[in-house]
């Protein structure tokens, strides 16, 4: 069908040429930043099949994987990445699948619902609902998730599916778009050895269908290692070996490292890169060090440098470089001839409204299945309303009741409305990881996510509790029982709470840590309280400070409330009839 033509089953060839990557590291608050090079001149080719990036911790595996997947700012990367001999498209990250190390699925939804979310947002419009369902069913079957398809993923407070099933669901989220290239950051981390093997066998099966699978991995067991087609072994950001997996032992043998009979090759490679004595000892024992223990010629040179040089000068390294150069030269000659070198840029698969719809649907499902936050907000607001109502119960129409106590009640109510928005800080902070993964992966536009989250938080978390609060307070304080006056009261509080929540969202989306966002928002609200005009007479304040009053939401809410109060006081000489009394 035409849909099947959109989604191809052949993997792409990814080649990368002289990749250098540096980051700026801030040493301390007062010192200048320091530049740290993470990758050095990495060149190679990954073909359809299983391609492993291996190396010790901190050797740059995840960084290289992200660069290849187009998930690192291009300006900071030197060198080039080609997809099928052409420029990597600017939105390659939306076309390729990327399975992050930490799960990026929503815990309150079931396996099927998570996969449907991905299908609804990432499959082109030409796919009907039926076809999407069929696709998701196929993936569930292919990944062996049939038995837990309708179980929830699970969260801290909810027991869900197992780690292996969760990992397979994450893979399924990417398989929905049938990507030509699938990247996985440490797909076996946190899994027991047989589950790890099951996941890797599954990837192997997918690769046999003609996909390019590229993953970083630490120390796979031998059974897993045998599934690999290509290997890139990194040490301190340098290529220690790159080529066919089944030639790796042969290569190390050729430079003097011999793997013990019962040794797991992956452990052996890591031992070599780490300079561990076992590998080197084997060399001494068996070969009498006839080729030199790699850095025997120059003991002052770090071992990884020598190993990288050894590879580069070896026939294996030369062959790989030659192959990569061929791809690059062909690209370069076509580029200089002016041929069309870019892949067509594919924009988001769905419209803003579709994205808005599905993100809202997921957020509402999430709230319904975990209603504790909303129920807590409603309960707190209701009881706080009761408390304010008891404090200011049925204010009389004398001067104190009409002016002083009403102003006090207004201040108290405003304060409550603004501070109740402290809970808004969790909206983006808690979902940050999932949002970054999905927006980078082309699930939705940032604006679609923002507006749907904004509305889905405002209504249940701000407006519904406000209804409970305002009805209780309005009735108990004894404001006039006229519908339009109540609506005016509700409107003032609604605008105030919405604005407070908006500030909360801005802080929440700007700061990475939940606790710093919370502290920052609290400080903003306390400053607003001080400059609200109730605790401190703003006319007596020094001029250089008094401008801060214009940033206070509390001041504006109080001003509108008190203005209405005073207009009525002026109009009704007896001071007993005001908008709220
Ligand atoms: N943005 C950054 N700022 C500072 N250092 C960084 C940054 N990104 C990576 N590094 C450093 O670069 C090195 C390689 O990191 P990377 O995460 O790629 O390693 P890795 O091989 O995947 O490690 P692991 O197996 O432990 O996940 C590490 O020393 C890391 O601290």
UniProtKB/TrEMBL annotation:
Places the protein is found: Membrane
Gene Ontology molecular function terms on file: ABC-type transporter activity; ATP binding; ATP hydrolysis activity; ATPase-coupled transmembrane transporter activity; efflux transmembrane transporter activity; organic anion transmembrane transporter activity
Pfam families attached to this UniProt entry: ABC2_membrane, ABC2_membrane_7, ABC_tran
Start and end residues of each ABC transporter domain: 14-261
Gene Ontology cellular-component annotations: apical plasma membrane; plasma membrane
GO biological process annotation, one example: transmembrane transport
Main location: membrane
Keywords assigned by UniProt, alphabetized: ATP-binding, Membrane, Nucleotide-binding, Transmembrane, Transmembrane helix, Transport
CDD domains reported for this sequence: ABCG_EPDR (cd03213)
Keyword Ribonucleoprotein: no
Residues making up the signal peptide according to the UniProt record: none
Transmembrane segments: 374-396, 408-428, 463-481, 487-507, 519-540
InterPro entries documented for this protein: AAA+_ATPase, ABC2_TM, ABC_transporter-like_ATP-bd, ABCG_dom, ABCG_transporters, P-loop_NTPase
Membrane topology: Multi-pass membrane protein
Protein family according to the UniProt entry: Belongs to the ABC transporter superfamily. ABCG family. Eye pigment precursor importer (TC 3.A.1.204) subfamily.
Record-given protein name: ABC transporter domain-containing protein
Gene: 20215821
């Amino acid at each position: 069908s035409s849909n099947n033509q959109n989604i191809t089953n052949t993997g792409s060839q990814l080649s990368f040429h002289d990749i250098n990557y540096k980051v700026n590291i801030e040493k301390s608050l007062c010192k200048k930043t320091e530049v740290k090079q993470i990758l050095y001149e990495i060149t190679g080719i990954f073909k359809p099949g299983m391609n492993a990036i291996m190396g010790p911790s901190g050797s740059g595996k995840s960084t290289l994987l992200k660069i290849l997947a187009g998930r690192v700012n291009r300006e900071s990367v030197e060198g080039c990445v080609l997809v099928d001999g052409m420029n990597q498209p600017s939105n390659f990250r939306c076309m390729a699948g990327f399975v992050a190390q930490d799960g990026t699925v929503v815990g309150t939804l079931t396996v099927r619902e998570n996969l449907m979310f991905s299908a609804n947002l990432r499959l082109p419009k030409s796919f009907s609902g039926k076809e999407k369902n069929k696709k998701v069913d196929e993936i569930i079957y292919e990944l062996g998730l049939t038995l837990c398809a309708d179980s929830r993923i699970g969260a801290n407070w909810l027991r869900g599916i197992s780690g292996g099933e969760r990992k397979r669901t994450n893979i399924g989220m990417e398989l929905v778009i049938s990507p030509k290239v699938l990247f996985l950051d440490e797909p076996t981390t946190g899994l027991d050895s047989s589950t790890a093997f099951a996941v890797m066998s599954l990837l192997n099966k997918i690769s046999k269908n003609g996909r390019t699978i590229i993953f970083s991995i630490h120390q796979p067991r031998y059974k897993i290692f045998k599934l690999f087609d290509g290997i890139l072994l990194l040490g301190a950001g340098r290529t220690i070996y790159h080529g066919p997996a089944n030639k790796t032992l042969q290569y190390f043998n050729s430079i003097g490292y011999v793997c013990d009979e019962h040794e797991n090759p992956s452990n052996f490679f890591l031992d070599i890169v780490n300079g561990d004595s076992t590998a080197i000892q084997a060399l001494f024992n068996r070969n009498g060090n006839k080729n030199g223990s790699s850095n025997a010629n120059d003991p002052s040179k770090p071992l990884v440098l020598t190993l990288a040089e050894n590879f580069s000068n070896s026939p294996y390294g030369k062959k790989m470089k030659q192959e990569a150069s061929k791809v690059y030269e062909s690209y370069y000659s076509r580029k200089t001839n002016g041929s069309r070198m870019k892949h067509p840029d594919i924009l988001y698969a769905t419209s803003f409204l579709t994205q808005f719809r599905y993100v809202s649907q997921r957020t509402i499902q999430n709230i319904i299945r975990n209603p504790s936050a909303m129920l807590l907000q409603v309960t707190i607001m209701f009881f706080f309303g009761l408390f304010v109502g008891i404090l200011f119960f049925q204010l009389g129409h004398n001067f104190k009741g009409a002016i002083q106590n009403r102003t006090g009640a207004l201040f108290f109510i405003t304060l409550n409305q603004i501070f109740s928005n402290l809970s808004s800080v969790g909206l983006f902070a808690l979902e940050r990881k999932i949002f970054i993964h999905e927006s980078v992966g082309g699930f939705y536009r940032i604006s679609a996510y923002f507006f749907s989250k904004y509305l889905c938080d405002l209504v249940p978390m701000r407006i519904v509790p406000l209804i409970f609060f305002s009805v209780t307070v309005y009735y108990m304080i004894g404001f006039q029982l006229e519908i339009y006056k109540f609506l005016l009261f509700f409107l003032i509080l609604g605008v105030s709470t919405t604005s407070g929540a908006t500030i909360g969202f801005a802080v929440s989306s700007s700061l990475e840590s939940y606790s710093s966002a919370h502290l920052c928002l609290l400080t903003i609200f306390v400053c607003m309280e001080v400059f609200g005009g109730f605790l401190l007479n703003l006319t007596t304040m020094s001029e250089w400070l008094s401008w801060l009053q214009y940033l206070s939401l509390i001041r504006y809410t109080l001003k509108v409330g008190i203005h209405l109060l005073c207009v009525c006081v002026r109009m009704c000489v007896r001071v007993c009839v005001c908008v709220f009394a």
